[in-house]
Write a structure and sequence with these properties.
Radius of gyration of chain A: 20 Å
CATH architecture of the largest domain in chain A: Up-down Bundle
CATH superfamily of the largest domain in chain B: Butyryl-CoA Dehydrogenase, subunit A, domain 3
CATH architecture of the largest domain in chain B: Up-down Bundle
Strand content of chain B: 5-15%
Number of strands of chain B: 8
Largest sheet of chain A: 7 strands, mixed
Structural class of chain B: alpha+beta
Strand content of chain A: 15-25%
Number of helices of chain B: 12
Shape of chain A: globular
Helix content of chain B: 40-55%
Oligomer: heterodimer
Chain lengths: 361, 391
Amino acid sequence: MDLSLSEEQRDLRDAVRSLLAKHASAEAVRTAIAAPTGRDEQLWAQLTGELGLTALSVPEQHDGAGASFAEVAVVLEEVGAALLPVPYDSTVVVAEVLTRFGRTDLLPPLGDGAVGALAQREPGDRSWPPHVGCVASRNTRSRLLTGVQAAVIDGEAADLLLVAAVDGGAEALFAVAGDAAGLSRAAVPLMDQTRQAADLRLERVPGERVGGPDAVAFARDVAAVATACEAVGTARRALERTVDHLRTRVQFGRVLGSFQALRHRAADLFTTVEAAASTARYAACAVATAPDELPVVAPLAKLVCAQALTDVAAEAIQLHGGIAITWEHDAHLWFKRAAHVQHTGGSPEQLRRQLAPAAGL
Amino acid sequence: MTAGTSQDVTFRAEVRDWLEAQLSGEFAGLRGSGGPGREHEHLQERAAWERRLGEAGWIGIGWPDPRYGRALSLQRQVIFHEEYARAAAPGRLGHIGEQLLVPTLLANGTEEQKERFVPGVAAGEVMWCQGYSEPDAGSDLANVGTRAVLDGDRWVVTGQKIWTSLAHVADWCIVIARTEPGSQRHAGLSFLLVPMDQPGVTVRPIVQLTGTSEFNEVFLDGAVAAAGDVVGEPGQGWRVAMSLLGFERGVSTLGQQIGFARELKAITARARENGAADDPVLADRIVSAWVDLQVMRHTALRTLGSDAAREAPWAANVSKLLWANWHRRLGELAMAVEGAAAVVTSGLPYELTDEQRLFLFSRADTIYGGSNEVQRNVLAERHLGLPRDRA
């Protein structure tokens, strides 16, 4: 497995980076999250329609770019760096799952900006892997799903939702249309305002079966990898901005970065972030070429990258000093994203418990 | 690493079979010997092992000059190190000659020097040690005080080196000495090749906290080197010494991690056996150690990627910080898993258990080969663009 970026991947990264540098400045992001939808609709249209970035790993015969999740990961990192308020991660996870399980027929028109979302948790559930409480009852053609899901990211905007339900005694993954009869959605406010979420109530909602327990697990793993890649982007950007501050801020007649006590902390953060980036890269390549490794490397990448972002975001505040506890400074955006990533999709303790058998315990 | 081409698979089998045959036969007693904290073990047998490696062409497989080495691909060098570690083959005695002296000569030496020194290293017959550090030149490596004066056709060297691994078995020492009187810091140093077997050289072992000796002091009191045994121009020794410290891909890192995995596995098995694993806090620490080992593996793979020179120019510094800290924590974990029994040694006069040896010797990991603090300074200056501390 070659973990270096290919030339095409580098070009893709540079193209997305320069686009976002132009159109997704911190001010633009703040303007977008203050808008009624909380999203940058114009940029979303550009990313999906003009650039086709949500369909990167979808096969060409299904109107995708025929690339792989390794390419999607490159975009995720840039989206994470900008904290771009668009439903990119949710949508690419759904696209990847449907592609993998041969259900591209269910994909909404991604080029038109269609949104996907993955429901991962029931209200009040603290378990990991999450408890599956939705129930599928059999209808003549499809299944009818009944249950509730909490704080589904991009759940309100989604054209297609993936929901796990118990079907004939086993877990299965279902695709549900956003406008399906019996589905009600209510927006829930989040501490991390760069994301949108909704509670779902399903009452005999028609769902298309995507796959069994392996589909449920695969969706969870791909979501973990997407989270890890985005977190790496955010962490790198937060560290970059912090190092810029250390290079330019003068106190006691010298720049802060000349104090060894601060340089060493920056160096440790750099080590933490690049080590974490290696796990995200490995896991993204595994989605593309070694999916049998995902049950281990996906939770591993999520665990490590969420912790790295948590460390960097906390230190970014401390190293910036007073300005970083203001609403005006971006540090709180990184810090809130870090908390979101850390506490959803499996806590560090839960993920380590999940990995215990692989560790020989 | 991944399987690679079918020829690489064949190569792996060749290495594995050769090691297995050697370590089941004549060298069976050497399995697992001579590792960190065990450098003192089986010196004569390990010298014979070096010669066997040399005969079979396993020394210098990565040397880029095909006249001397085999110039094998990065992938195959990694395979060799992985198999070497997997077989628990003995700690090397010849690695300073193989990995420091010869690459330096190939890059900076004269043809005459290459012809004179490389074959002995390649044959596993001539051992080298490295005299860089001094009592007043530790992390501040440029503060070299050892002097060398040209006297006719020879250099006369006076000074003291310290932390010199393998000085007691080495035939030659690489000595960084000040050859321009009154010069400061990095200027005026020379890279000299000094024979160890002479009246002006005295080696004194340093007894470490383990009670064993891996390191030595080397006293140079009128020690002599031939005038021609200087690598590069006199006065350019710093540049020559640093020429190897640029971008390192760490072909031996994955092999090192196989050894680490073996240590962690033993600790994990012990925790299951003695009940420590039933303590959820200790179990969490064990899983964390395993997770961090995977992090190091993925990082190593990234530093071996096809475009690593561009993407991971920080590889050597980041890898050193990661493994040194990890290994030190592993020593602490090994003790915690033993519980109160961890304090009892296995015998007199001072026979340590494996856990104690790991716990104690791993304190050196974050100090030698560029301390954590030096690694952080290099990262801050070279990779983060932060200014030097001028306080």
